[in-house]
Amino acid sequence: MPEHQATPLPEAASDDLGACLGVPAMTAYHCLFADGSPAGKNVLVSGGAGAVGHYGIELARWAGATVVSTVSGPEKAELARAAGADHVLNYRDDDIADQIRAAVGRVDRVVEVSLSQNLGLDLAVIGSGASIVSYAATATDPTIPVRACMGANVNLRFVLLYGVPTDVLRAAAQEVTVAASAGMLTALPVHRFSLDDVATAHEAVESGVTGKVVVDID
After folding, report:
1. Mean pLDDT of 67-71
2. Domain-embedded: residue 7
3. Closest by alpha carbon to 112, among 153, 155, 82?
């Protein structure tokens, strides 16, 4: 492994936090900052209880953004609030677009977990020139309403961390470390398993458990 890919964990950060950072926090950082700082902007984080969503909320707040997050129910809403979201809404509500606009007005940046499901909602709440940044693929590809996207002057960005230039990744790692050192990042709910129970740990991941699965090897 190249040396620069090993990032020292800040002294104040727990091992559990270290196990949760890496790809999720780096992905969230790139989603938020690829089009400039979100400071002073309205950010919509789709799926705020997920790993990338969690750090999307925390890093956006650290940067000085106002954050609205969508979730699927009360338990996940509590996780998004704990991460620091200013507004937490249930995306299953029929009037979700109206709720988002009432909460923050128009959205400047969207951290999107399911573009195929949420593109219509995103276009309904963004302002002109906003960025919608998709970091996950779904079984069904989205249909892009070209005219609506043109009318919004929207920037559609797709992020797969493994294709991001090395210098950009290094800068992201440095900034994530700064945020962790400042105590602005927290661990996700951690589900611990022993090495002897690694098969059950895999089953927990496959079941879509909320949080991070950790295998203790000592």
Report:
1. 98
2. no
3. 155
User: Could you give the CA distance from residue 160 to residue 148 in angstroms, rounded to a whole number?
Assistant: 25
Residue found by looking up tokens 């590809």 in the block: 141
CB 71 within 8 A of CB 55: no
Indicate which CATH number applies to the domain containing 136. 3.40.50.720
Q: Domain containing 34: what range?
A: 13-181
Encode 118-157: b = buried (16+ Cβ within 10 Å), e = exposed. Answer: bbebbbbbbeeebbbbbbbeeeeebeeeeeeeeebebebb
Using DSSP, state whether 213 is helix, strand or coil: strand
Number of domains forming the structure of the chain: 2
Q: ∠ at Cα 24 (20, 26), nearest 5°?
A: 110
Global confidence as pTM: 0.94
Give CA–CA dist 15/143, Å, rounded: 41
Q: Is residue 163 domain-shared with residue 195, that is, in the same domain?
A: no
Please calculate the CA angle 24-159-83 and round it to the nearest 5 degrees: 35
pLDDT digits (tens, 9 = 90+) for 50-60: 999 999 999 99
